[in-house]
Specification:
Elements: E1 22-24, E2 30-32, E3 57-60, E4 66-70, H1 87-91, E5 93-97, H2 118-132, E6 137-142, H3 144-155, E7 160-166, H4 193-204, H5 210-214, H6 216-234, H7 250-261, H8 270-276, E8 281-286, H9 296-311, E9 323-327, H10 341-353
Parallel strand pairs: 4-5, 4-6, 6-7, 7-8, 8-9
Antiparallel strand pairs: 1-2, 3-5
């Protein structure tokens, strides 16, 4: 399981406060996360940035390489199926967490959070690694989580043993064309959870046409996804009738995350990241993904590859400087039909350890 922040001790930087929070890992013992105050809810670390007072975490496995998974927008550790039950969870020491604004992590931004920036989310990753005592780690992210992972690599590349980016891009525009609208948080106020989930499910895999939705398999997947999301969105099941009432922080927290992504653009940093992580880069695309802008993933890989090739010594030119693989799947290949996804990702981590 996972635990909210708890505990006490000296060390808050807040005015007149003397208490501190800690995050507890279900597999190990509690560990402090820098200066989170239960009274004023202010958190400051050595970078001087404000932090939320709680982060829900799950640490899986006791053997194998250390891997942190940066979750996608809307992820929640309460949802099933979870990565702890995947081949990754069975092969690695895997750190999972709910990003601020989601799940059981602090989800109420005002007034104590820093202004929305991807750098804040990347620093959250660094704080969690400090908390579990991992100086260096393999980093995996999908979708929005891959953008957080890429931002973390741009700020703390010395802590990245390898970097795997799944179905994402380096910024410069979320959508190209009116047929691919961005799923903004404020749209939650104008549609039901069921409508939003159906739209996301359709865009995540372009093979899902009306016949798929009408099939027993498609209908069952939609019912299951909608039920989970409604329980989280409204805090109760079944959801209230009439005008939806969202659980405290559900809309605000996710809106903060999307606001952080609004100015996300690392295109001019890609060659620098590629140079720092040459031979330890993997980009994964999906042939049926309808959420990543066309050409954006290929551009990200090409720029990473250019920087990585320049950094590899002549004797290492035979090794892949930055790998690109395509899955016969939708936006989330770990749960959509391509059985080669996990073996290829695990193989990449194994090669990066050698």
């Amino acid at each position: 399981g996972f635990a909210r922040a708890s505990g006490s001790g000296a060390g808050c930087w807040g005015q007149g406060c003397t208490t501190r929070l800690a995050v507890r890992c279900a597999r190990t013992s509690r560990f402090p996360v820098g200066g989170a105050c239960v009274n004023c809810a202010r958190v400051r670390d050595t970078r001087g940035a404000c932090r939320p007072p709680a982060r829900a975490t799950k640490l899986v496995g006791s053997e194998g390489p250390c891997v942190i998974y940066c979750p996608s927008w809307g992820s929640d550790l309460r949802k099933a199926p979870g990565l702890q039950h995947s081949p990754l969870g069975r092969s690695c020491q895997l750190l999972l967490f709910d990003a601020r604004g989601t799940g059981r992590s602090d989800s109420l931004p005002a007034p104590r959070w820093a202004s929305p920036r991807m750098a804040v989310l990347a620093d959250d990753v660094a704080d969690l690694l400090d908390a579990v005592g991992w100086p260096r780690v393999h980093v995996l992210g999908c979708s929005f989580g891959a953008q957080v992972a890429l931002t973390f690599a741009s700020r703390c590349h010395e802590r990245v043993a390898s970097l795997a980016l799944v179905n994402s891009h380096a910024g410069g525009g979320e959508s190209r064309g009116a047929d691919k609208p961005v799923l903004l948080a404020h749209a939650l106020e104008d549609m039901t959870v069921a409508e939003r989930m159906r739209r996301m499910i359709a865009l995540a895999d372009l093979r899902r046409d009306e016949a798929w939705f009408a099939s027993p398999q498609g209908a069952a997947i939609v019912r299951f996804a909608v039920k989970q999301e409604e329980e989280i969105a409204h805090g109760v099941s079944p959801p209230p009738a009439g005008t939806p009432t969202f659980a405290p922080g559900f809309v605000e927290g996710r809106a903060w995350l999307l606001a952080a992504r609004r100015n996300y653009d690392l295109r001019d940093k890609l060659r620098e990241i590629g140079s720092a992580l040459a031979g330890r880069l993997l980009v994964v695309g999906a042939t049926h993904d309808g959420l990543v802008p066309p050409g954006a993933l290929e551009f990200m890989h090409a720029e990473l590859l250019e920087g990585a090739r320049a950094a590899l010594p002549d004797g290492a030119k035979c090794q892949p400087a930055a790998e690109l693989i395509w899955m016969e799947s939708g936006h989330w290949p770990s749960v959509t039909s391509d059985p080669s996804f996990w073996p290829r990702v695990l193989g990449f981590f194994a090669r990066s350890c050698s």
